[in-house]
Amino acid sequence: MIKHAMTKFGLIVLTAALAVGTAYAEEGEGLLASNSSVGNIASLQRGAQTFFNYCSGCHSLKYMRYSRIAEDLNLSEEMVTKNLIFTDAKIGEPAMATIKAKDAENWFGKAPPDLSLEARAKSPDWIYTYLKSFYVDPSRPVGWNNTLFPGASMPNVLWELQGVQTAELAPAKPGEDAHIEKLVLSKPGKLSPQQYDETIRDLSSFLQYVGEPAAMKREAVGVWVVLFLAFFTFIAWLLKTEYWKDVH
């Protein structure tokens, strides 16, 4: 009876796990692989530089302190103060946006969201794909639109690096509306397409790190934990063999 109950419980857990996995798979459909990594310190440093130069004017990281960034990314306080802090904030304070929330609400109608947990909520692949999906759209208030997030109120703040993309429409079939077939780089930016991909990959990695700063240490310690468990399992198997050798 106990065995039957355990089997039934195992099937319930397995079904739930498969359901969760399917939900994540559906959510990630159509996203480009960012290949982000929180283990590459140089990439995180470049991502931090991109964020604070292009994103921190409107977006904050209110759950991340500058001092933590300095510690984790092997940066001195002087380097962070000089290159990443563009407000009157101190090194031990959270990384808040340059624009004030009240001013943002008056100018834009709504304050830009905090991005501390953006990578955890939507994944680094979503951020990477989003930053590759802007195109010129004169019908929008800011002149830009996004194929991943249609109607996005955010302009393409990285257009100088990426260049300007325009949308090419696929031929419409009778009774159907025309849809975007692909985006074409109509005006090159300061970076080549490959360099731009690397830049937003670094930015995605940085936001992934911000979403879970402990991941860096967790992944480093995790290898040793797995090795310890493997060694302990081997010792336990030897001990079990020794105890039960006379019974068998």
Short description:
The protein is mainly alpha-helical and 248 residues long. It has ten helices and six strands. Helix content is 52%, strand content 12%.
Description:
The protein contains ten helices and six strands, in the order H-H-E-H-H-E-H-H-H-E-E-H-E-E-H-H. It is 52% helix and 12% strand.
Task: Give structural attributes.
single chain; 248 residues; mainly alpha; two-stranded antiparallel sheet; two-stranded antiparallel ribbon; 10 helices; 52% helix; 12% strand; globular; disordered N terminus
- Describe the global form: globular
Strand order within the widest beta sheet: 1-2
Number of strands: 6
Strand content: 5-15%
Distance between the termini: 26 Å
List the helices and strands and how they pair.
Blueprint: H1 2-27, H2 41-54, E1 61-65, H3 66-72, H4 77-83, E2 94-95, H5 101-108, H6 118-122, H7 124-131, E3 134-136, E4 144-146, H8 159-162, E5 163-169, E6 180-188, H9 193-211, H10 215-244
Antiparallel strand pairs: 1-2, 3-4, 5-6
Helix pairs in contact: 2-9, 3-4, 7-9
